[in-house]
Amino acid sequence: MIDPHHPLIKILLVLLALLAWRRWAPVSYWYVLVFPRKVISLRWTWRHVASGCGLTKKRHRWWFTTVPGLVASTGVVQVKRRFQRVAVDTKPWMGLPRPTRNGFRITFHLLDGQIPDDYAKVCERLAHAWRIEAVRVVGSRPGRVTLQGITSDPLTHVAAAMPPAAPPGGWRADDLLRPIVGVLETGAAWRMDFRLIPHWMNAGATQSGKSNLINALLVGLAPQPVALVGFDLKGGMELSAYQARLSALATTRSECLDLLSDLIAVMGARMMACRRHGARDIWQLPDSARPIPVVVLVDELAELFLTADKAEKDQVTRTATALLRIAQLGRALGIHLVLSGQRIGSDLGPGVTALRAQIGSRVCHRVNDPETAVMTLGDLDPDALVAARSIAPELPGVAVVTGSDGRWSRARSGYVSDYAAEQAAHTYAELTLSWAQVAASGLGHELPNPSHHALNP
Ligand SMILES: Nc1ncnc2c1ncn2[C@@H]1O[C@H](COP(=O)(O)OP(=O)(O)O)[C@@H](O)[C@H]1O
Ligand SMILES: [Mg+2]
Hints:
Layout lengths: L6 H18 L1 H27 L4 E15 L4 E15 L7 E3 L2 E7 L6 H6 L1 H7 L4 E8 L2 E7 L29 E5 L4 E3 L8 E4 L6 H12 L5 E6 L13 E5 L2 H25 L16 E6 L1 H5 L4 H24 L1 E7 L10 H6 L3 E5 L4 H8 L4 H8 L8 E5 L5 E6 L4 H10 L7 H6 L17
Parallel strand pairs: 9-13, 9-14, 10-11, 10-12, 12-13
Antiparallel strand pairs: 1-2, 3-4, 4-6, 5-6, 7-8, 7-16, 14-15, 15-16
Bound molecules: adenosine-5'-diphosphate and magnesium ion.
């Protein structure tokens, strides 16, 4: 018979309980058991870690030191204590670590001559020293830098992206165009904030999660009073399922050119409206006069730039010029681009480099070749390129995303099946304005003669 009161049995039961706790309630396990131990070890080892990562500085201090001296008359060595200036290693002051769901945050006081970038450069070293997944700089103030330690990768399980509920009292201008599409590796929501960064690039190899991001974006924007426009030169295979919520969809090259020239006409009309009101952008216009924002989804940018013969070359040049104008002027006029593609580089043709320079935020999914990562993320931190190239194929939807501050982060879009996106498009179909209504919105009159490519006339 096993005695249930035997000490070994008791230990075994406690161990099993701990294992079950860790398995079924990892968050509370982390807060209660792991985090306090981590705090002690972080503070205990900080001098060594800071010195190993080159974050300490030599400083001169007055110090009591023991100095051996030879007494000449007797030849005896005597040890004297003297007040002396010596160089000592100073470590940056470490604030108390604060727990987060999947890690911790710590603020450090910068030593004289240090900048937050000095910490950004040694994030990987810190992660290894602290035995955690990753470390990122998440904020800075004068004289301070805040780091986030990530103990478990929150990107392995990401909840599906859902259509956001309308805020109480209806959509206000400030709520628009900031859909949540997934999760950042810090555990925070990944918001594609078009108001902050007007245009986005969505790059990656096939099966890396580009279309999923478009789906998540569609689901996030569908309930908002926003016009969506699609360019899909794969014959409409990708975007035509969402037509119920699209104000226009172009699927052939000539439709694309027509739609682009309409968009430019719309921009011209909006520019005049802004000038009449003395506004610098549509957000400064009174609510009643503000035209509806337009988000242009381009699936497979390369298709827009491919030329089969000389005749098409002229069309491609005009397409490139039109896109560039929209990218340059769209920000103030509420016209936003999301450019998706496998490669978005100069090999597509002249004009692509200039276009890319106008795209403020980059999303780089898994890529097949290093050049694509370089093209997409530009000359960002080499660490960002390494992170982009090490995205595992088993985790589609994971991407390296650049932020408004030039820093980068890993992120993953919430899974949205084509069916779910299609459902969202149908659910919110009544919000779809026809292309003529989009062109006329906020202007108080219909634009003359919108072209007839639009599939929702
Ligand atoms: N964030 C995600 N979470 C889970 N699965 C995803 C995610 N993103 C993409 N997938 C899956 O990966 C596969 C490829 O994604 P897709 O968006 O079609 O890639 P792409 O458009 O780049 O070829 C699809 O089966 C999709 O369901
Ligand atoms: Mg796709």
